[in-house]
C-alpha cells in the first residue's frame, strides 16, 4: 500500500497560513483543503477570512463555501470529506495541502481518529450546558478527561460546545472518540507559524478592521435577513454574535470591534496552547525568512518521502 504525502499548515488565527499555503501550492502542484469549521459554510466569507475570489481561482480549494449555514458539520463529517478529497487529489497527481485553524480537525486527521457519526441528543446537551453554567466549563471537561483523555487533549476546556459534542459521541459510541485506525496510509508533514505576541495582535487587529471595511456587518445582516438563526453553530464563530447584538441594539460599532479583537487575541493564545502539544509539528517564524525555511523543510520531506515510496 502506497503511503500518501499530506502537507499540513497550522498556526494561530491571523498568522498568515493561507498566504503560505497558496504560494506552496502554486510551486508544488498542490490543492488546498480547508480544515476550518466555519469556512465550510456559504455566506460567512468575510467573518471567517475565507480566501477571496482570486485566491480561490489561483489553486483548487476544497471544503470552502460548501454547506448552507443551517446544516450540521462536525469532526466526523470533516474527516470523511477530507479523506475523500485527499485521495481524489492524489488520484489527479497533485499534492494535498490541509490548512487549518480548527486544531481538533487537524489532530484527528493526522492521527487518523475513528470518529463515529452520532445524531444530536438535545436533552443530553441541555443537561451538560446547565452543568457547565452552574459549575463552570471545567466541570464537564473533567468528565471528558476521565472518559476519553486523548479526545480531551485536542479540545480547549472553555469550548463548551465541543466538549459536549465529544461527551455526546462517547455516550453513544463506547469506543474511544479518538481511537486510532490501523490502516492509515497517510503520512503528514506539518509546519506551524509563530510570531511575537504583540505582532500577532497587530495582525489580528488589522484583519478585523479590514473585515469591517469589507462589509462584515452587512454580511451578518444578510444572514439574518435570509432566516439564519443566531443560535446556529455556523454563527458561533467569533464576531457574529457581537455584530448581531449590535444590529439589534444601540451598541456602538467601535465597542463591538474592540470586543471582537479582544476575543480573537484570546483565541490565538488558546490555539498556541493546544498546538504546542503536537510533537509532529515543526515551527517557523512568520516572516519571509521563516516562510523560506518552512518551504525548504517541506520540500526536503517530500523528497525523502518520494525516495522511500
What does this structure look like?
Helices cover 54% and strands 11% of the residues. By secondary structure, it is an alpha/beta fold. Among the domains are: 60 residues, Orthogonal Bundle (Histone, subunit A), CATH 1.10.20; 72 residues, Orthogonal Bundle (Helix Hairpins). It has a six-stranded parallel beta sheet with strand order 3-2-4-1-5-6, with helices on both faces. α5 packs across α8. The protein is globular. About 2% of the residues have low confidence.
Mean pLDDT: 89
CATH homologous superfamily designation of one domain: Crystal structure of tRNA isopentenylpyrophosphate transferase (bh2366) domain
Low-confidence region ranges: 179-183
CATH-derived topology of one domain: Helix Hairpins
Number of helices: 13
CATH architecture of one domain: Orthogonal Bundle
Radius of gyration: 19 Å
Distance between the termini: 10 Å
Helix content: 40-55%
- The total strand number stands at 6
Side-by-side strand order of the widest sheet = 3-2-4-1-5-6
Oligomer: single chain
What are the secondary-structure elements, in order, as H or E? EHEHEHEHHHHHEHHHHEH
Helix/strand-derived category reads: alpha/beta
Categorize the overall geometry.
globular
CATH class of one domain: Mainly Alpha
Beta-strand fraction estimate: 5-15%
Q: How would a crystallographer describe the biggest sheet?
A: 6 strands, parallel
Amino acid at each position: 500500500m502506497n503511503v500518501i504525502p499530506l502537507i499540513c499548515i497550522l498556526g494561530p488565527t491571523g498568522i498568515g497560513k493561507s498566504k503560505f499555503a497558496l504560494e506552496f501550492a502554486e510551486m508544488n502542484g498542490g490543492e488546498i483543503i480547508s480544515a476550518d469549521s466555519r469556512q465550510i459554510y456559504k455566506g460567512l466569507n468575510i467573518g471567517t477570512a475565507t480566501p477571496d475570489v482570486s485566491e480561490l481561482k489561483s489553486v483548487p480549494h476544497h471544503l470552502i463555501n460548501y454547506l448552507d449555514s443551517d446544516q450540521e458539520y462536525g469532526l466526523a463529517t470533516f474527516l470523511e470529506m477530507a479523506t475523500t478529497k485527499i485521495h481524489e487529489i492524489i488520484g489527479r497527481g497533485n499534492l494535498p495541502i490541509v490548512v487549518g485553524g480548527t486544531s481538533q480537525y487537524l489532530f484527528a486527521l493526522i492521527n487518523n481518529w475513528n470518529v463515529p457519526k452520532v445524531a444530536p441528543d438535545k436533552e443530553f446537551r441541555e443537561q451538560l450546558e446547565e452543568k457547565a453554567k452552574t459549575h463552570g466549563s471545567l466541570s464537564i471537561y473533567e468528565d471528558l478527561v476521565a472518559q476519553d483523555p486523548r479526545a480531551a487533549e485536542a479540545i480547549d476546556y472553555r469550548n463548551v460546545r465541543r466538549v459536549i459534542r465529544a461527551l455526546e459521541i462517547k455516550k453513544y459510541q463506547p469506543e474511544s472518540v479518538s481511537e486510532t485506525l490501523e490502516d492509515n496510509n497517510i503520512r503528514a508533514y506539518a509546519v506551524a507559524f509563530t510570531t511575537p505576541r504583540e505582532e500577532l495582535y497587530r495582525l489580528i487587529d488589522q484583519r478585523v478592521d479590514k473585515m469591517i471595511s469589507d462589509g462584515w456587518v452587512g454580511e451578518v445582516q444578510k444572514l439574518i435577513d435570509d432566516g439564519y438563526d443566531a443560535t446556529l453553530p455556523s454563527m458561533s464563530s467569533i464576531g457574529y454574535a457581537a455584530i448581531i447584538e449590535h444590529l439589534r441594539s444601540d451598541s456602538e460599532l467601535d465597542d463591538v470591534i474592540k470586543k471582537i479583537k479582544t476575543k480573537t487575541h484570546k483565541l490565538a493564545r488558546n490555539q498556541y496552547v493546544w498546538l504546542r502539544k503536537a510533537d509532529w509539528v515543526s515551527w517557523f517564524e512568520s516572516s519571509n525568512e521563516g516562510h523560506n525555511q518552512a518551504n525548504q523543510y517541506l520540500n526536503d520531506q517530500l523528497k525523502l518521502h518520494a525516495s522511500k515510496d
